[in-house]
């Protein structure tokens, strides 16, 4: 099996295993525990997490908050459009104009086209960047983030099907972690969706430290891989921030030999990016385009809480780098055969 061949990260999945709604209660999701050293799999539930971790372990969570970044509108000529607003055009320092968007429309976008959303918001296509991406200037008399929250929708992944306004309320609540705090993500850090406030308190009472960092999930996390050799794939930069207190606590855990458990691939990329830049974990506000593939040398994390990821995705590369490609393929095959629920609203894995 070629670890750099994109075909090695493909797998078959019955459509009914793609979760269309969250579990009735967040922490009742099933949990597949994968022990790397033993090559062993064990079935638990997410509420069992305190029993699987040890006092002194440090659990690192991503407190980014998903913004209502999906906008529906129309062209000035009448055709409908749908946008996923990915963020400001960071090279030009624009805050409320020049935003990079993923655009869907009946006809290819044209530079200079005007877009209408409601009476309070309009836009103009400034650049067509390819692969569905455009740069759009927005115009309004009101603050943009408030307008997006008012007229925008939760940017659910395309494999979660919704008819009209179906489940809008539950998505606004459940496609968000209970500890989400810093607005800026266009997709949820889904490994964190399983936590409840009660479960976090149980973890603390057992002596497990919980540290917050922020990585704003952007298009880079889920952009399609269009290369045969995964080493040629490039991720778009995503912004992350590690505070002084979290950096100190994670560094202390490494010094005393305690485990650092990342909640989600976003946390992995932030922590390992920081370590590459500084040789350790330091307080930092930066961007990362780190692509983690088999052969990567992990220097921070000792365990990973994660969901089941799409085939042929950069997230599959990362978990395979951490646990081993063959073991991950075995785990995914087990999960599919035993009817685990996959992707954003699906069940979870704990890799130790």
- Summing up helix and strand content along with how strands pair, one would put the structural category as alpha/beta
The separation of the N and C termini measures: 24 Å
Number of strands: 17
Order of helices and strands: EEHEEEEEEEEHHEHEHEHEHEEHHE
Per DSSP, the total helix count is: 9
Strand content: 25-35%
User: Poorly predicted ranges (pLDDT <50, ≥5 residues)?
Assistant: 89-96
Q: What profile does the largest beta sheet have?
A: 9 strands, mixed
User: C-alpha Rg, in Å?
Assistant: 20 Å
Shape: globular
On the 0 to 100 scale, the average pLDDT is: 92
Indicate the percent of residues in helices.
10-25%
Strand order of the largest sheet: 2-1-17-16-14-3-12-13-15
Pick out its properties.
352 residues, six-stranded antiparallel barrel, 17 strands, 28% strand
């Amino acid at each position: 099996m070629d670890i750099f061949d994109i075909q090695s990260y493909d797998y078959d999945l019955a459509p009914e295993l793609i979760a269309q709604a969250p579990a009735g209660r967040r922490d009742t999701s099933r949990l597949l525990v994968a022990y790397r050293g033993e090559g062993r799999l064990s079935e638990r539930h997410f509420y069992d997490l305190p029993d699987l971790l040890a006092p002194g372990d440090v659990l690192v969570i991503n407190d980014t908050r998903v913004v209502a970044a999906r906008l529906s509108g129309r062209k000035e000529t009448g055709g409908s459009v749908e946008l996923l607003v990915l963020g400001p055009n960071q090279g030009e320092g624009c805050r409320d104009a020049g935003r990079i968007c993923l655009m869907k429309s009946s006809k290819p976008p044209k530079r200079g086209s005007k877009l209408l959303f409601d009476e309070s918001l309009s836009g103009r296509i400034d650049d067509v960047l390819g692969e569905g991406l455009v740069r759009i200037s927005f115009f309004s008399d009101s603050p943009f983030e408030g307008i997006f929250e008012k007229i925008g929708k939760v940017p659910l992944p395309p494999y979660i099907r919704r008819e009209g306004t179906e489940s809008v309320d539950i998505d606004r609540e459940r496609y968000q972690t209970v500890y989400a705090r810093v607005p800026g993500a266009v997709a949820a850090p889904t490994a964190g969706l399983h936590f409840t406030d009660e479960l976090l308190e149980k973890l603390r009472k057992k002596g497990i430290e919980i540290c917050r960092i922020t990585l704003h999930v952007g298009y880079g996390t889920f952009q399609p891989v269009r290369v045969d050799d995964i080493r040629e794939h490039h991720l778009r930069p995503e912004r992350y921030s590690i505070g002084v207190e979290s950096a100190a606590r994670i560094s202390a855990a490494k010094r005393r030999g305690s485990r650092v458990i990342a909640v989600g691939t976003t946390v992995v990329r932030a922590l390992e990016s920081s370590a590459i830049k500084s040789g350790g974990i330091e307080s930092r506000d930066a961007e990362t385009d780190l692509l983690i593939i088999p052969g990567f040398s992990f220097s921070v994390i000792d365990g990973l809480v994660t969901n089941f990821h799409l085939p042929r995705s950069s997230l599959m590369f990362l978990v395979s780098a951490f646990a081993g490609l063959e073991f991950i393929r075995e785990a995914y095959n087990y999960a599919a055969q035993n009817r685990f629920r996959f992707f954003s609203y699906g069940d979870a894995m704990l890799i130790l």
